């Protein structure tokens, strides 16, 4: 592969070119170099050992929202304000303070206790799917499940879940690289709509508390210490995280299993394989393609040195396809034992995904509901995951239940 080499010795492959290329391109790059420059101020770490190590490095902070927005060219406005205030894009005491308002609710024991709720939602959604005719699984199942679960948890009207899921699908483009500046007005409009929606729901709970998470937040001492606008941004982020990435993950999980009927039948015969199927689907086609970090001190990647001030994307997409760590890394293997642990798609260190347990339970219960009540589902058109960095998105999966 012929590559341009920068003055610092790092190979160059523009983000736009990489985003349009097949995944074999990133595999080829990884074999040549541990790092690639995707634009003037941004490089991407490609190898599993480096990504796993650096995702937990306390000297490599999460890329602050202000830096992220500036690097992507996102104009001033609601979307940029969200990035500058959301817990995921903050560090240190600020991150700890914001995340702390949600830590108890999203603790693993608390979320495990919600499995029954998720199961009921999943089974109802599967029961609602059309029979005997083609349908869009992404729209009618994969999107509904996480949106309706997070709505029930937060205490939002379930009938509004399809509306806010649609807003989230547009709004989440602010976390995709490169930024779709040509769609900024649409993204900004969705950010503003979600802001007003969450603000109204929180005001409603302040006037009259209910038995839901939003009511708990407006009464919780830690959450009440947040400025009102700050709390709105955190809830917006929870809705985004709870609606968007799981829908893509579920869509690709089902698509992968249906594309190889032996895999679908194996999981159907042995439900103990469901977690393994989820791990493999999230590994091969992760809905989060990279983890953003800010280089504050020189970072060594083999013979290459990434200078302070650079934006470093830790490529989960590349790392989890790394044949140096995994046998037959591009193969979907339900019996795989050479896992990279913890699973890189959920991040690392203090920013590891707050909703990891919820996402896993949603995927487990969603797949189990399909296997129980729609085992005859057939693939008509397979989905594809698009993008290589930040939040990725899926094309529709077209299926039919006989």
Automatic annotation (TrEMBL):
UniProt cross-references to InterPro entries, sorted A to Z: Cyt_P450, Cyt_P450_B, Cyt_P450_CS, Cyt_P450_sf
UniProt xrefs under SUPFAM superfamilies: Cytochrome P450 (SSF48264)
Superkingdom, according to UniProt?
A: Bacteria
Any matching Pfam family: p450
**UniProt family annotation:** Belongs to the cytochrome P450 family.
Task: Please give the organism.
Answer: Paracoccus aurantius
The record's keywords, sorted A to Z, are: Heme, Iron, Metal-binding, Monooxygenase, Oxidoreductase
Presence of the UniProt keyword DNA damage in the record: no
What name does the UniProt record give this protein?
A: Cytochrome P450
Q: Does the keyword Oxidoreductase apply?
A: yes
């Amino acid at each position: 592969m012929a590559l341009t080499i920068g003055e610092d010795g790092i190979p160059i492959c523009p983000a736009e070119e990489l985003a349009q290329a097949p995944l074999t391109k990133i595999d080829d790059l990884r074999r040549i170099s541990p790092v690639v420059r995707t634009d003037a101020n941004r490089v991407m770490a490609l190898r599993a050992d480096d990504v796993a190590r650096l995702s937990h490095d306390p000297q490599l902070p999460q890329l602050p929202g202000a830096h992220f927005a500036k690097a992507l060219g996102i104009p001033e406005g609601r979307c940029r304000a969200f990035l500058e205030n959301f817990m995921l894009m903050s560090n240190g005491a600020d991150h700890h303070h914001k995340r702390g308002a949600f830590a108890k609710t999203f603790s693993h024991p608390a979320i495990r206790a919600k499995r029954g709720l998720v199961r009921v939602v999943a089974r109802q959604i599967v029961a609602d799917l059309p029979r005997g005719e083609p349908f869009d699984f992404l729209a009618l199942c994969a999107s509904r499940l996480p949106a309706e679960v997070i709505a029930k948890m937060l205490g939002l009207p379930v009938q509004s879940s399809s509306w806010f899921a649609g807003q989230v699908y547009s709004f989440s483009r602010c976390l995709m690289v490169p930024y779709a500046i040509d769609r900024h007005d649409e993204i900004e409009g969705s950010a503003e709509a979600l802001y007003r929606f969450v603000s109204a729901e929180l005001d409603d709970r302040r006037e009259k508390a209910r038995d839901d998470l939003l009511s708990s937040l407006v009464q919780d001492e830690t959450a009440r210490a947040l400025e009102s606008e700050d709390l709105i941004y955190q809830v917006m982020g929870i809705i985004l995280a709870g609606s968007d990435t799981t829908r893509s993950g579920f869509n690709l999980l089902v698509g992968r299993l249906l594309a190889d009927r032996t895999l679908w039948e194996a999981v159907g015969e042995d439900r103990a394989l469901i977690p393994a199927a989820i791990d493999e689907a999230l590994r091969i086609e992760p809905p989060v393609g990279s983890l953003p970090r800010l280089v504050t001190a020189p970072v060594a990647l083999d013979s290459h040195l990434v200078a302070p001030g650079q934006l470093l994307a830790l490529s989960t997409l590349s790392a989890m396809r790394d044949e140096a760590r995994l046998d037959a890394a591009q193969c979907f293997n339900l019996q795989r034992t050479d896992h990279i642990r913890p699973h890189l798609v959920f991040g690392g260190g203090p920013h590891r995904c707050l909703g990891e347990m919820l996402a896993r339970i949603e995927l487990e219960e969603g797949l189990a509901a399909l296997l129980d009540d729609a085992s005859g589902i057939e693939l008509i058109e397979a989905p594809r995951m698009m993008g290589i960095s930040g939040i990725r998105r899926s094309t529709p999966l077209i299926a039919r239940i006989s």
